[in-house]
UniProtKB/TrEMBL annotation:
Domain Major facilitator superfamily (MFS) profile: 44-423
Keywords in alphabetical order: Membrane, Transmembrane, Transmembrane helix
Membrane protein topology class: Multi-pass membrane protein
Name of the protein in question: Major facilitator superfamily (MFS) profile domain-containing protein
Stretches the record annotates as Disordered: 1-36
PANTHER family: MAJOR FACILITATOR SUPERFAMILY (MFS) PROFILE DOMAIN-CONTAINING PROTEIN, MONOCARBOXYLATE TRANSPORTER
Basic and acidic residues composition bias: residue spans: 19-35
Annotated transmembrane regions: 40-60, 80-102, 109-129, 135-158, 165-186, 198-220, 241-263, 283-303, 310-328, 334-356, 368-387, 399-418
Subcellular location: Membrane
Length: 495
């Protein structure tokens, strides 16, 4: 095992320190930035929770919106599914735009803009008298606004958290589950009482409140200074083979990801459930998602659990359950599936940005997340319309859910390739951020680590073990500087 590590800080002359300061000014201060892993970060986490409540909560209620659109316009299911499918896909498509603008202008400004764009899209949707205008107003405009709100809130968590990133992401994504729990019955009640037009106007008012969450997104040190070296779509990141496989696996899964969210409500109605009973399924998925995001978020921060393998297990479980639900004849069994799917989806949604950071490292995480979600938008668009068209042909949803299971298994199989990804040349140097410019490429044995801890007054929990992701192991350490502040460093080992 080869280990790339830096040696202990060396004493420097005044001229050397001055030169180093100038060099840091030219290259940007990100090498000295250390996520606080707490403090104001928890307030930021709360703000991200509210953003997820408003954006993902409404997206995950696509089944209720879809059912109301069918009732309002009496259109074909395949055609109607394009409205909610476009909205979700546009949210992903503009991910790179949102993350890049956040790097340049700050997450706060971008999320405020997103709140008003999404509100404008919903307000314009209230004046649609046919289905076609909703492709633009709801599908594109609301999708753009929600993207400008969601993805800067995900990226800013990676700037405030590192050691507790999985937990913070899980807490933020709990807002999506709570939002789904609230939005489904809320939309169904409003639509039944006031009609779809008034419902869209009320939803527009709710979405505009996103700007309050944006006020908590206080910029961290060096957030703007990094922009000059970033591109909106830095496709050079695909030189990382692990990242390329990760993107391919998730894109395959995106082909069927939205099928349960969009079609499960109508599936239950076809199996004899009332309209009010079917709308409650989004609530069961939301409750499961809340548990899943919190439980998996806490578990995946523990060193003995492998995040990638947990993600694979989640996808395999989704595949099996989505196939078995076709056998359900009673409403209660469909509720069980909705709850189980919610738990699994909560874990999956939490792990996507976390594993992405594990694969590409902290310096490239903003670009990697933006590019990932942007590419995922294209296959995500296709799933619900295909499932709707299959129903229009067969008059049954069984084929749609069997297809969901089969495609998810294929995604899981592709993800297994990450365990055999060869080490990328120079990757170990690229991903390490250290305060010292010196490095030692010799293997670091037990005695070396003991000596290093003593020389740097290392403050660490010895029970922490390596986190393995593919062929990479990350060793967490804390080093104490002379001023008593702890700086988090990552020592990368490659098998």
């Amino acid at each position: 095992m080869t280990v790339m590590a830096t040696g202990p800080p060396e004493s420097k002359s005044a001229d050397s320190v001055a030169n180093d300061d100038k060099e840091r000014g030219r290259n940007g201060p990100e090498q000295r930035h250390t996520p606080p892993d707490g403090g104001w970060g928890w307030v930021v986490c709360l703000g991200a929770l509210v953003v997820n409540f408003l954006t993902i909560g409404q997206q995950n209620s696509a089944g209720v919106v879809y059912s109301e659109l069918l009732w309002e316009y009496s259109t074909q299911r395949g055609e109607t599914a394009w409205v909610v499918s476009l909205a979700s896909s546009m949210m992903y498509l503009f991910a790179a735009v949102g993350t890049t603008l956040a790097e340049r202008y700050g997450s706060r400004v971008v999320v405020i803009a997103g709140s008003f764009v999404s509100a404008a899209g919903l307000f314009a949707s209230s004046f649609a008298t046919t289905l076609q205008p909703l492709f633009v107003t709801y599908g594109v405009i609301w999708g753009l606004g929600s993207s400008l709100g969601l993805f800067p809130s995900l990226v800013i968590l990676t700037k405030y958290f590192r050691r507790r990133l999985a937990l913070a992401s899980g807490m933020a994504l709990a807002g999506a589950a709570i939002g789904t729990l609230a939005y489904g019955p809320f939309i169904q009640t409003l639509s039944s009482k006031y009609g779809l037009a008034v419902t869209f106007r009320i939803l527009a008012g709710v979405q505009s409140l996103m700007f309050l969450s944006a006020l908590t997104f206080r910029p961290v040190e060096s957030e703007k200074a990094q922009f000059n070296r970033k591109k909106m779509c830095d496709f050079a990141i695909f030189r990382n083979r692990g990242y390329a496989i990760w993107v391919a696996a998730l894109c395959i899964f995106m082909l069927v990801f939205l099928v349960p969210f969009v079609h499960l409500v109508r599936f239950a109605e076809d199996r004899g459930a009332s309209k009010s009973q079917a709308s409650l399924l989004t609530g069961y998925m939301a409750g499961g998602g809340l548990l899943g995001s919190l439980i998996f978020g806490a578990v995946c921060d523990l060193p003995k659990f492998n995040r990638l393998k947990i993600c694979q297990l989640i996808l395999l479980s989704i595949a099996i359950s989505s196939s078995v639900v076709t056998l359900a004849k009673k409403y209660e069994w469909i509720c069980v599936y909705a709850s189980a799917f919610g738990v699994l989806d909560g874990g999956y949604e939490m792990l996507v940005p976390v594993i992405t950071r594990d694969i590409v490292g902290p310096r490239k995480v903003s670009s990697a997340i933006g590019v990932l979600y942007c590419i995922m938008a294209f296959p995500k668009t296709l799933g619900p319309p295909i499932a709707g068209s299959l129903y229009d042909t067969t008059k049954d949803y069984s084929a749609s859910f069997f297809l969901t299971g089969a495609v998810t298994i294929l995604s899981t199989a592709v993800m297994f390739l990450l365990n055999w990804v060869p080490r990328a040349k120079g990757h170990e140097v690229e991903e390490i951020t250290m305060p010292s410019s010196t490095s030692d490429t010799s293997p670091l044995n037990k005695d070396d680590r003991k000596s290093l801890r003593q020389s740097l007054s290392l403050a660490t929990a010895d029970s922490l073990q390596a986190q393995q992701h593919g062929s990479t192991l990350w060793f967490p350490y804390y080093f104490v500087e002379s001023n008593g502040e702890c700086i988090y460093l990552e020592k990368l080992s490659v098998v």
